[in-house]
What we know:
Blueprint: H1 4-7, E1 9-12, E2 16-19, E3 22-31, E4 38-39, E5 41-42, E6 52-53, E7 56-58, H2 67-78, E8 88-93, E9 104-113, E10 120-121, H3 134-148, H4 153-160, E11 163-165, H5 166-173, H6 181-190, E12 194-201, E13 210-215
Parallel strand pairs: 3-9
Antiparallel strand pairs: 1-2, 3-7, 4-10, 5-6, 8-9, 11-13, 12-13
Helix pairs in contact: 5-6
Amino acid sequence: MRSMTESNLAVRPGDHPVHGTWLSVDVVALTDDLEPQIVLIERAGAPHKGETTLPGGLLAAWDGETVEQCAQRIMRDKAGTELTGGVAVVDVVSDPDRDERGHTVSIVVVARVPAEATGAVPVTQIPEAMPFGHTTIARAAIRRLEERLLVDPDTTHAMLGDETTLAQVRALLNVTGPTTAGAARKRLDRSPLYRRTDQLRKPAPTGRPGHVYRFTYGPA
Length: 220
């Protein structure tokens, strides 16, 4: 992995290297269970060593890395966990003062991780004033997730996958505030992205079985 200095070189006419702009990926990862929590990490190096942030890092564009590959690498290397599905871009943050090391444009993605992922905390416990604007980034991403769930295909599939249940949908909606089962069911039944099947699945060992909904967006 290149250093930030090495990866932030642009070339002007006349071949004079100058510092340009970094492109990074910040991951808002929620645990894949009925009480989703957000994964945070403790920074291992300067700046802000020991402080809590979102998992994030530079996009290795020089190696042909995609945003999804970058998110997978970040979660594996910095959070010690794997993603359970894909990612969806929910924001691009370009505040030039966000990172004291230089102008860094952040691609913000949402994703799911296993329920046992370390570093997971309730969304209500996101620390105030995390470095790099991560508090604002995390809260904005969660709001956009609630707005796009069952509306935007990419966001929905990244968070719910090929199959889901009412309990799983309600759990995600509850991240931004209490949602009744009736409100969640109405939203799920009205979405063109999932079709209810006759298959039943228990949301938890002690829960009542619920219908499985299958993702239907895209070519048949």
